[in-house]
């Protein structure tokens, strides 16, 4: 998945950042803003599903996986939660990206967390960027770790200059919506943020109709191209093709030898799933108690998961990485993976344990 955040005027610049007088103010087009404000709840309901693709090289070798899940969530207000992740290995070097975004029903970003990593022998790179709306500002904090060197940047933009903002997370849901409509207006230009936290423009356009083979079937697909501008180099271009129901078929960065592909139609996968019949005890009283308790627990667990959709994303990330690395010591791997999430330092945790 590409490492793209975007560009424009800001409040609270980090050291070395250009001042607003040095910038040309960028804006989203009226067509883009109108599109976002015109999204209907029924359209979002159709977007609540998961995509799972395989990343392959030019020669057809599997390099990793790419997945996107969308579901409804609730924070201070009803919203959408999108989680996308890409894990794989290039030249035997593990790499990946994970994005978790909370979006309003018109795709305004409430909060987004973006994590990228590349693990090279003796030289690893880890980038984390978190943005959240707070008091009329988009507050952004970025941490870059190269080997042992850690660099932190912080910046705030007034939401007024981020009208029509599209991030990595919201762009995936935006393209899914466009694919379901199977049409888009002309001049769909939004604002975004680049890796340097500058405001830039990103635009979308409809691609020519074509056919692609999925699971042995030749299907008509709808294409969307995203062009991401850059302040320092050439624009990057991504092309995605979708089925009629919004499922992603292919995703590729123009010029890259790596492609993300859907190998099997979702409907086929569902048909191939075989349900295992449940054998109940013959004691009717025990069976009744079991069913009552089961429904009670199910409702309680479902309620908790709805309140905390990040649980599924966290577990999914861990399992994907576990199956990719296949460590001999699973417990050691799990400890190393979850240590950064600990709220307390290990030494503090030991002291708390001894005091109990």
UniProtKB/TrEMBL annotation:
Entry superkingdom:
Eukaryota
Query: Where is each Ciliogenesis-associated TTC17-interacting protein N-terminal domain found?
Result: 31-257
SUPFAM superfamilies this protein is in?
Dimerization-anchoring domain of cAMP-dependent PK regulatory subunit
Q: Where are the transmembrane segments?
A: none
Note down the stretches annotated as region Disordered. Answer: 1-29
Q: Name one GO biological process term.
A: cilium organization
Family as reported in the entry's similarity comment: Belongs to the CATIP family.
Q: What job does this protein perform?
A: Plays a role in primary ciliogenesis by modulating actin polymerization.
Q: What is this protein called?
A: Ciliogenesis-associated TTC17-interacting protein
Organism (species): Astatotilapia calliptera
């Amino acid at each position: 998945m590409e490492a793209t955040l975007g560009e424009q005027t800001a409040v609270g610049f980090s050291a070395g950042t250009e001042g607003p007088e040095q910038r040309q103010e960028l804006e989203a087009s009226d067509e883009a803003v109108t599109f976002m404000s015109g999204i209907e709840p029924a359209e979002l309901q159709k977007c609540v599903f998961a995509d799972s693709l395989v990343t392959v090289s030019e020669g057809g070798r599997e390099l990793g996986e790419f997945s996107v899940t969308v579901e409804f969530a609730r924070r201070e207000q009803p919203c959408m939660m999108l989680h996308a992740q890409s894990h794989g290995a290039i030249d035997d070097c593990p790499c990946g990206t994970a994005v978790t975004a909370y979006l309003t029903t018109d795709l305004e970003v409430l909060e987004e967390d973006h994590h990228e990593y590349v693990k090279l022998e003796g030289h690893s790179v880890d980038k984390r960027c978190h943005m959240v709306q707070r008091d009329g500002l988009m507050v952004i904090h970025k941490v870059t770790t190269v080997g042992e060197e850690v660099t932190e940047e912080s910046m705030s933009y007034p939401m007024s200059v981020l009208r029509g903002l599209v991030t990595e997370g919201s762009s995936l849901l935006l393209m899914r919506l466009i694919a379901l409509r199977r049409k888009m207006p002309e001049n769909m230009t939004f604002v975004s943020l680049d890796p340097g936290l500058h405001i830039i423009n990103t635009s979308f356009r409809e691609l020519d109709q074509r056919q692609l083979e999925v699971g042995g079937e030749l299907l008509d697909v709808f294409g969307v191209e995203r062009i991401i501008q850059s302040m320092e180099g050439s624009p990057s271009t991504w092309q995605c093709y979708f089925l009629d129901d919004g499922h992603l078929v292919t995703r590729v960065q123009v010029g890259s030898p790596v492609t993300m592909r859907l190998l099997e139609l979702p409907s086929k996968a569902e048909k191939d799933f075989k349900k295992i019949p449940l054998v109940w005890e013959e004691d009717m009283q025990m069976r009744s108690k079991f069913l009552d308790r089961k429904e009670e627990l199910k409702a309680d667990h479902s309620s908790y998961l709805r309140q905390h959709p990040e649980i599924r994303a966290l577990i999914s990330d861990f399992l994907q990485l576990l199956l990719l690395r296949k460590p001999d010591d699973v417990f050691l791997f799990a400890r190393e993976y979850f240590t950064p999430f600990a709220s307390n330092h290990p030494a503090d945790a030991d002291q708390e344990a001894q005091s109990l």
